[in-house]
Amino acid sequence: MDSVVVFDVETIPDTDLCAALTGCKSDNLDEMRSAMEDYHLRITDGKNPFLRQPFHKVIVVSLLKATLAVKNGYEFLELKKIASGDIESYAEKELVQFFFDHVCKSLPRLVSYNGRAFDLSVLKYKAMRYGIVARDFYYSGDKWSNYNNRYSADWHTDLIEVLSDYGSSARMKMSELCVAFGLPGKLGIDGANVVSMYDQGKINEIKYYCEIDVLNTYMIYLIMLRHQGRISSDSYTRNLNELQFYLNENLDKNPSYREFLQLLDRSPVLHFK
């Protein structure tokens, strides 16, 4: 394993499935979405309107790619690029294919925040719906170490799981950890805004937001690796410098990078002793 991929997806309700799921005959988006939420409220005894994973439509996939090397017991990461695809440029099937093609080709260590419960689950259901084959995702590694073993953090580090000791302590929201660690955070947008932003045609803004989530996830991951002693203090500092350099070089690709950098510059995580 010689690479790391930090990933995040953004979704909206897949209203193409509404009629079959709920019996709703309306073609009004708000009414279809409400019908899907009402369905989920009914099956959870009024506790949760959040749609189950197969009923989401993927509209953005963002990946942060880094190389990974191990020497003298330490890991060394080097940021290479941040890449995103969105529903304006690609069909949903192509977005899902983009993710699994990359994973199956390079077999990276995956890093996510709640990715096992949501993002990856959505991607797997959609891959099955579209007939996308991802054999290497399921058959790489061994019996105990692989992408699908919940505790194989070297294959998939789901930070919400690892940092809570798999539910032994509270599973923190990413936004909460960003506050606790002094990280830039979500810059005024969260997942609850995505549907309305999509309706307003703000696909690029959703993509920018998704990339900020990926950056926060990467920062939390680096902080954890430093705490665990898996990367040295010097490597940690170098990783942060690489990140700042990359974002400064790509300000034209995502306007949110500028605000992220400004907030990061004031963060205590830059000044660990």
From TrEMBL:
This is Putative 3'-5' exonuclease related to the exonuclease domain of PolB family protein. It holds the Pfam family DNA_pol_B_exo2. The keyword Hydrolase applies. It comes from Neorickettsia helminthoeca str. Oregon. Keywords: Exonuclease, Hydrolase, Nuclease. InterPro entries: 3'-5'_exonuclease_PolB-like, RNaseH-like_sf, RNaseH_sf. One of its GO terms (molecular function) is nucleic acid binding. It comes from the Bacteria. Residues 48-262 form the Predicted 3'-5' exonuclease PolB-like domain.
